[in-house]
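Researcher: Please translate sequence to structure tokens.
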Amino acid sequence: MPRYRARGTGASVCPGSLRPEVWTADRDVLVTSCSLDSFQKTRLSGAVPVTRSDELATRLREVGLRVTGPRLAVLSVLAGRAHVDVETVRGAVHDRLGGVSTQAVYDVLRAFTVAGLVRRIEPAGRPALFETRTGDNHHHIVCRTCGTVSDIDCVVGAAPCLEPSSAPPGFLVDEAEVTFWGVCANCQSKNREGIDHL
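Model: Translation complete:
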């Protein structure tokens, strides 16, 4: 049974339900396990289902961006994954919308980055990655072997987290981007197995 939002309000209703909400497999519609009796169905006539697209469209409008199919598709892909490269985004958007150019995806990602919806990270020697975790002071850890990137909460505290020992006069530091490098546990295990077979 879909969850409903009454027209003209931000309130979501699912009468009689205290059960948790669950996204459908395609993550397009938020559902609850509530059931509506005929009175409730009558009272809710004229209501519209709350969809994930509605929530994503709201996020776009909140940062002053026009809602378009490609923007919704890109934001949906990013909202479901962390640290995604452009080709992965393009492939997923292509699967959803059909033809979409890599340049169009770059344009959307650039607009999202400028608007603060996404953060672009560029680990050395790797393609640029995009994530929706923004507005906090977190860093990244990258596996040198497989390239896996994970978030690490700030080690020191509030932004900018670290201060340069010498900066040009009048330079205001507002962020320190830290990337830790190493070998993840999975790759260490594989390396040990390879050595054991020698």
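Researcher: Any highlights?
Model: The chain has a mean pLDDT of 74.
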